[in-house]
Design goal:
- The protein is α+β, with helices and mostly antiparallel strands.
- 43% of the residues lie in helices and 13% in strands.
- The protein has helices spanning 9-38, 51-65, 67-92, 97-103, 109-128, 133-170, 211-215, 226-230, 242-248, 274-279, and strands at residues 181-185, 188-192, 282-283, 286-287, 290-291, 298-299, 301-302, 321-328, 331-339, 343-348, 356-357, 361-362.
- A 5-stranded mixed sheet has the order 6-10-9-8-11. A 3-stranded antiparallel sheet has the order 1-2-12, with no helix packed on it.
- Helix 1 packs parallel to helix 6.
- The longest helix is centred in the middle third of the chain and has 38 residues, at 133-170.
- 35% of the residues are buried.
């Protein structure tokens, strides 16, 4: 019995193409972030970046093998993920129509895919109800081809990203030293604080200080309890000014050896400016020759592409950005940060996560920091 053309077969092909597209997008994102953010961190943390792609792959294989069951799972999972994803975006950076549209391929598209798989499931059930062995064999061949495509393409995407990024991270320099380091580059010569409260100080509760935590550390009561400090600040707590940073910042209280915080400021250390961080970026243990034109958001111009390497960075710690002393000139509610690859941008001053660290600096001669 020859299988007649069925226009509903288009739904199954479109569903497969779209679910493979979503899986490839998440694979690309996961692989890129694995090498950019997580390389060098202890397992299993780097593997977390591959979870979205793995879940999408499992969903796609399930839906191709059992279209109805897989469609229902995708409908629930895709809808729930979309709500969570857009809510997170709205809470962190605001959700405009344009931003939501940009994120549709990685989130809401799964809902459309689910609907198409449900249509495909109905088509398959109708054809199998004919009892034709020829029809069953053709459906089996079609399903196997789709499964191969759904599995092979994400693997190729991961292999492509790895081929581009892996050689660089394998050459990354880490001399293991986490003490005070002197970095002398173009128009900048600074000592950078050692491991401790002056460098990526992760709190016992597990969180990293935001720019606001760093700026208001010395405000009574001294410490990182922002609720007590911000109670009397109006109108906007995030509108902490640079002069308040200069007055209360945690680096002022750092001891000469950088290993402890004192009860009173000693003014040996300070937070570096964005320009100082940019000029101190490194590659292969030496200066990368980076400069910045002051644009925000912007990217440094470098003689060599900088990397997350010593003596400036700790390759085995999560932070890939350093907070700078500057605020965003276009938005006083934001402070600037610099990535290890020379990206300069702003984030809300109360923003804090494991990717945003800091490092206090002082002049080599030991005079009070300006």
């Amino acid at each position: 019995m020859a299988m007649r053309f069925d226009r509903q077969a288009v739904a199954g092909s479109a569903a497969t193409a779209l679910v493979v597209l979503v899986t490839c997008l998440w694979t690309f994102w996961g692989a890129a972030e694995l090498y950019y953010e997580a390389w060098g961190l202890p397992l299993p943390e780097p593997l977390f970046y591959l979870v979205p792609a793995t879940v999408c792959l499992l969903f796609s294989l399930l839906a191709i093998r059992w279209p109805t069951a897989g469609g229902l799972v995708l409908l629930f999972g895709g809808g729930s993920f979309t709500i969570w994803w857009w809510t997170m975006l709205a809470r962190r950076i605001g959700l405009s129509f344009e931003r939501a549209l940009v994120h549709v391929p990685a989130s809401a598209l799964l809902v459309l895919v689910a609907a198409l798989f449900l249509v495909e499931g109905r088509r398959v059930r109708r054809l199998l109800a004919t009892g034709s062995q020829e029809v069953a064999a053709r459906l089996l061949g079609q399903r196997r081809r789709r499964l191969v495509v759904a599995l092979v393409l994400p693997v190729l995407v991961f292999a492509g990203v790895s081929a581009a990024e892996l050689p660089g991270v394998l050459r990354r320099t880490d001399d293991g030293e986490r003490g005070i380091r002197r970095i002398t580059c173009d128009r900048v010569d600074l000592l950078w604080a050692p491991a401790g409260p002056g460098w990526n100080w992760r709190r016992p509760e597990g969180w990293y200080p935001s720019w606001m935590h760093l700026a208001l550390y010395g405000m009574p009561p001294a410490g990182f309890d922002l609720e007590a400090k911000l109670a009397g600040i109006t109108p906007e707590p995030t509108a902490i000014r640079p002069d308040e940073l200069a007055r209360w910042n945690v680096c002022r209280y750092l001891s000469a050896d950088g290993l402890s915080l004192l009860d009173e400021p000693v003014d040996l250390w300070r937070l570096p400016t964005a320009d100082e961080i940019v000029r101190s970026l490194v590659r292969g243990g030496a200066c990368a020759g980076c400069t910045w034109d002051g644009a925000v958001p912007g990217r440094a111009t470098c003689a060599r592409t900088p990397d997350k390497e010593t003596p400036l960075w700790a390759p085995d710690e999560p932070p890939i950005y350093y907070w700078a002393a500057d605020e965003d000139a276009t938005d006083p509610g934001q402070a600037l940060f610099v990535s290890y690859r020379g990206r300069i941008d702003g984030r809300p001053k109360d923003w804090g996560n494991s990717r945003h660290g800091y490092r206090c600096v002082r002049p080599p001669e030991g005079e009070p920091a300006p």
